[in-house]
Amino acid sequence: MSEISSTAKLTTDAGASPARSRAEALGALVPIALKLRDLVVLLLALVTLLFVLLPLAGDPAQVMAGMDATPAQIDAIRAKYGFDQPWWVQYFRYWGNVLQFDFGESLASGQPAMEVVLTHLPATLLLTFLAMGFTIAVSVPLGAWLGFRPDAVTRRIGAWLVFFFQGVPGFVFGLVLIQIFAVNLRWVPSLGYETPAAWILPTLALSAFLVPKLTRVVAANVAEAMREDYVRTARAFGATRREILWRHALPNALLGAAALIGTQFAFLLSGTVIIERIFSWPGIGWLLIERTQTLDFPVVQALAMLIALMVFAVNTITDLSFRYLDPRIKGTN
Amino acid sequence: MAIALADSRTKRAQTRIRSYLTAEIVTGAVLGTLVLSALIFQPLLITHDPMAGDLFARFQPPGTDGHILGTDELGRDIWSRVLAGLTWSMSAALVSNLISFVIGTALGLLAAEMPGLVRTIIRQLIDTVLSFPGLIVAICVITVFEQGFWPLVLTLGFLTWPVFARVVYAESLTLLERDYVQNARLIGVGRVRTLTRHVLPGLRPTLMVMLAFHFADMLIAESALSYLGLGAPLGEPTWGNMLAASRDKLIFAPWMMLAPAGAIVMAVVTTNFVGDGIAALSRRQGKGIDQ
User: Fold this and answer.
1) What is the pTM of this model?
2) Contact A303/A284 with Cβ under 8 angstroms?
């Protein structure tokens, strides 16, 4: 299917005038312009939301000054940070700070808030990449196996089990893993992240969020690809089913799987928050829970902004690269 | 002749009924009925007051003194607390599901019906909320407001409506092009009536399946937030709270974790199977129309 449409495109391109190809080149920039608009709107919404939520949580001057501060001290802090200014002055000043990635100092340690967040980022990235790697390593072969002959009895049972596992939330799975492998069998530690042995359970628990979903997508894509016309043609020319799986069906299915992983990145980051909490993994999710409890709002704001930007970047890269890779998407909006 | 006709009619009815008895539909119906009856007959099934503790009977393993699933750190009966948690989880998931369904469907229909500025704004809104880091925003919002039923369900509802809006928008666009909708317009049926009477019924199969799977997502989100201490008020018998309470007691009281964990898995798996059953049912009915 993809080969056919790309050759069709080539023939029309050959006959196009220079003006038309220039228009097409400009047209290729439209998705990027739209993404920039999305980014502006996202920032506007998020910054405004954070700006509105902050004072609702309590008087920030009071929190900064501490419990036993005198009214004079609180007023001094209010004047120093500009909390006595009208709201729109504060709002624009806030924007100025956000654009410089300056969220103020952590109320707990006095370090710049963004610095605190960035020191915890590597742990989260490690966990996310481990989980993604494990998810792909399990889901792709399993999905290909399930989708290759979806009506065979063992594979139907397999598909049923995968569907069952989709109903097991990753954090519940994580707790059960701790119970079995850390508490009862004592094979691996349940906390910390210094030794690679301690990485195993968090990785498995975080993978549980995505493995069933991805397996089902790969299986469905492989099963669908096996029914395509070009597969029948290849069969007619003497290719074995196995060759077809590796050369045609699986590459097609992987494209869909990669798209899913890209769009599920935000979901995975949300998953890390609770997994990090369970395993005391010192990443940004753990930091988020800890700092919301102590009302360390500069750090929470820096976190929210960093995570939103990361999710946006991954979604945009996935979306744009698929627009250029897969000719089938170009026509659709 | 008449007998043969009647015979073939009953045979046809039989095969029709049999065609509904697929694995997906039966599993969904049976599991759904089980959970629903647990919800309805809960007062009969509860053996102890879920809030009343007995400090002389703390950490009792399952099966002792009529405590089917044992007791927790305050000597409260876990079986009764798991059952009481069913009400909380089901109502939280149901209400947040409905909030996101109503907002999402309304905005999705509106975007399909009104091209131009309204559509652009709604689509931008969908994209923005979808790229929001949902759980993080939920944590911030619930920390700022108090934890409780309404902050929880409103946050979940307002963060997840784009799931419905996107699908409703895309499907309504094709439905609005259909002849029967165009004809309704031609004979002067108004906009609101066209959408509610002619477009919305066409969306029903899709929406039913989405409601079921979204319900499962809301169950997970609710228990996760409660586990983090951001959902149900502390002490309330909910599965998330019970899991949180079991955190440092896994070594000597694993049943405190396993009972609510099993309940969450059972509820989510049931909902998934019900969703799968509804999907199979609407596929079958769709086939019936085509024939």
Assistant:
1) 0.82
2) yes
